Amino acid sequence: MGAQGQGHTNGKLKIGMYWASSCGGCDISLLEIGPRILDLIKVADVVFWPCVADFKYRDAAGYPDGYMDVCFYNGGVRSTEQEEVARLLRRKSKTLIAYGACAVGGGIPALANLKSRAEIYDVVYHQNPSTDNRGGVVPEPLHEVPQGELELPEFYPAVLRLKDVVPVDYEIPGCPPQADRVWESIQAVVSGAVPPRNAAVRVGCTEKSVCDECPREKRLVKIKAFRRHHQFRPEPGWCLLEQGILCMGPATRSGCGALCLKADMACEGCYGPPPNAEDQGTCMVGALGALLDVSTEDRAREMVAEIADPTGTFYRFSLSSSFMKLGK
Length: 328
Ligand code: SF4
Ligand code: SF4
Fold this sequence. Notes:
The chain is α/β, with parallel strands linked by helices and 328 residues long. It has three domains: 13-108 and 158-202, 3-Layer(aba) Sandwich (Rossmann fold), CATH 3.40.50; 116-156, no CATH class; 210-321, no CATH class. Helix content is 30%, strand content 15%. It contains twelve helices and ten strands. The radius of gyration is 22 Å and the shape is globular. The protein starts with 12 loop residues before the first strand and ends in a 14-residue tail after the last helix. The structure holds iron/sulfur cluster (2 copies). The site of one iron/sulfur cluster (SF4) has 13 residues, from α8. One iron/sulfur cluster is lined by residues 210, 252, 256, 258-261, 267-271.
């Protein structure tokens, strides 16, 4: 690995990582590059990574604009704080990368876009059995106390993608991104072998679908009924979708090497829509239209009704990218 692709001041890259509305898995996935991290720190200094060291926002704010060569932003944008930090890191970074499914498409947290802010507050602050909140209070952005006014970040009505609030140079999909793809992406950035910036180009993935990488046999039979893993034992080696398990492989970008299929689990779609598709759910519905064994509209409706949680299945990781603007 050589440090020749970016503008270095001390011969090393300056990199950052930030965790917004996400679970923390993306931060761990960056560490999953394993011993290769020793190669990384030969060519890069970490100058902002609050999850792993005591970096403060004021550290980033004090850097000159464009100081960081590369900043990975993981998580969606659900609050004024997360949007402010996105704007700050955009200003301080030459290259800003949306890292992981939540930053790219909203991810699992964006499923809450199906509920209003009032409904979410009700569950979290009033109905949660482990919360003692006899006064029934909910967070408010401004609160008067004797010492003055306290301010909390405002909770947005929906989870936004990083590119909804700032220009993004590249996107690395996945929940979380797979370590080998992450390492390839880092090497590309370090060597300068990357596509032009400012286009939210997806990297760390391929131009195929998960089905294209899946080792399971396609027998080209139509789906007769939908079933779930706990209802039967699928035949090993045969396409799960053809056996009635709703596998998102046809509507999901590859990059993981069909990881879940190799563990006998259906793809849940974490790498987002395949190339040339933005809306993963309509992409999957289109694929199913050609695969269902139905001869009448009534039978088609019955089969669709067999799908448990269609929105959560078709948009598990990409609801913020839905053309239907669900929950927005
Ligand atoms: S639908 Fe799923 S199981 Fe079938 S080939 Fe595609 S990825 Fe593999
Ligand atoms: S098989 Fe699907 S859900 Fe599993 S890691 Fe790959 S893209 Fe994600």
